[in-house]
Amino acid sequence: MEILETAAALQALTEKWRREGRSIGLVPTMGALHEGHLQLVRTAAAQNDEVVVSIFVNPTQFNNSEDFKLYPRVPDSDAEMLRGTGCTVLFTPTVEEVYPRPTVLQFNFGALENVMEGAHRPGHFNGVATVVSKLFHLGRPHRAYFGQKDWQQVAVVRQLVQDLSFDLDLISCPTIRETDGLAMSSRNRRLSPEARAVAPRLYEALQLAAAQLQHTRQPELAQQAALDFLGAYPQIEVEYLQVADARLLQPLPAGTEPGQEAVICLAAWLGGVRLIDNVVLLLT
Ligand SMILES: Nc1ncnc2c1ncn2[C@@H]1O[C@H](COP(=O)(O)OP(=O)(O)OP(=O)(O)O)[C@@H](O)[C@H]1O
Ligand SMILES: CC(C)(CO)[C@@H](O)C(=O)[O-]
Ligand code: BAL
């Protein structure tokens, strides 16, 4: 596994790979790797000749400077974890390398970003789209891999790929969970033992909401059931819990018909750490 730190070095290599007809998979990350990331890398390795993993804590997507400052950074153990996964290049640029000058780029994803993460983290998806576009240009991937834990991010990147005609396949991969159901996340490292102990209740609440939604087809009832359940845990502060159309991400109306694909998304604070999760279901 080669480690590259400059955009020029990555671009030169991926240009060479393209000339040689080698297929390229790209896995963008912010590091503090866990099994969820490694599954993306293994999937990319199974489907491509070369796999680029980027680790870059992207300042432009953080709406909260404290969150950026405290974001876990463990470059040595990240590089160690990637060995043997099929990653051929690890790209770890500095902020100056990615943003030699301040970016003025403005994306507008319309309704897709006016809800949930977009509504609660102003500017977040602008920063994601900016850095992902840069990574697509430098990595020249045939396929790019994203996790469904960030469901709305996948929808936004899908729109980005379509609108800017990026010639690649977007592959969205299932959420990997701890054995107690907690979605793996780099931010889990920041949970206190007490917060970690109640964190699995988030997924339980989502499952409860999914069961209610399937049973009643009333999004309000489903949301309320999950909120009532979480209300018993004072350590958990829900920022939003939303039943939405899985593609359009808009709130689902009451009496939704069978055949509708729904997503139930949640963001919650546990002792100063913000976690997100979701479940997807097809109404029958
Ligand atoms: N548990 C998981 N299962 C599958 N994919 C995941 C999981 N966690 C993260 N990913 C995906 O890995 C990629 C990089 O995510 P990122 O580096 O932000 O990790 P993270 O664990 O989501 O961290 P955090 O949520 O704390 O920012 C994203 O496409 C993300 O959706
Ligand atoms: C896609 C991404 C690496 C862009 O910085 C980030 O949003 C993430 O880790 O999900
Ligand atoms: N996994 C999403 C990146 C972020 O929280 O900024």
UniProtKB/TrEMBL annotation:
Q: List the Pfam families.
A: Pantoate_ligase (PF02569)
- A Gene Ontology MF term for this entry? ATP binding
Read off the Gene3D superfamilies from this record: HUPs, Pantoate-beta-alanine ligase, C-terminal domain
What residues bind (R)-pantoate, as annotated? Answer: 61, 153
Q: Catalytic activity, per the record?
A: (R)-pantoate + beta-alanine + ATP = (R)-pantothenate + AMP + diphosphate + H(+)
Give the record's pathway: Cofactor biosynthesis; (R)-pantothenate biosynthesis; (R)-pantothenate from (R)-pantoate and beta-alanine: step 1/1
Name the positions where beta-alanine binds.
61
Does the keyword field hold Cell inner membrane?
A: no
- Role description: Catalyzes the condensation of pantoate with beta-alanine in an ATP-dependent reaction via a pantoyl-adenylate intermediate.
Question: Which PANTHER family does the record match to this protein?
Answer: CYTIDYLATE KINASE/PANTOATE-BETA-ALANINE LIGASE (PTHR21299), PANTOATE--BETA-ALANINE LIGASE (PTHR21299:SF1)
Q: Which family does it belong to?
A: Belongs to the pantothenate synthetase family.
Q: What is this protein called?
A: Pantothenate synthetase
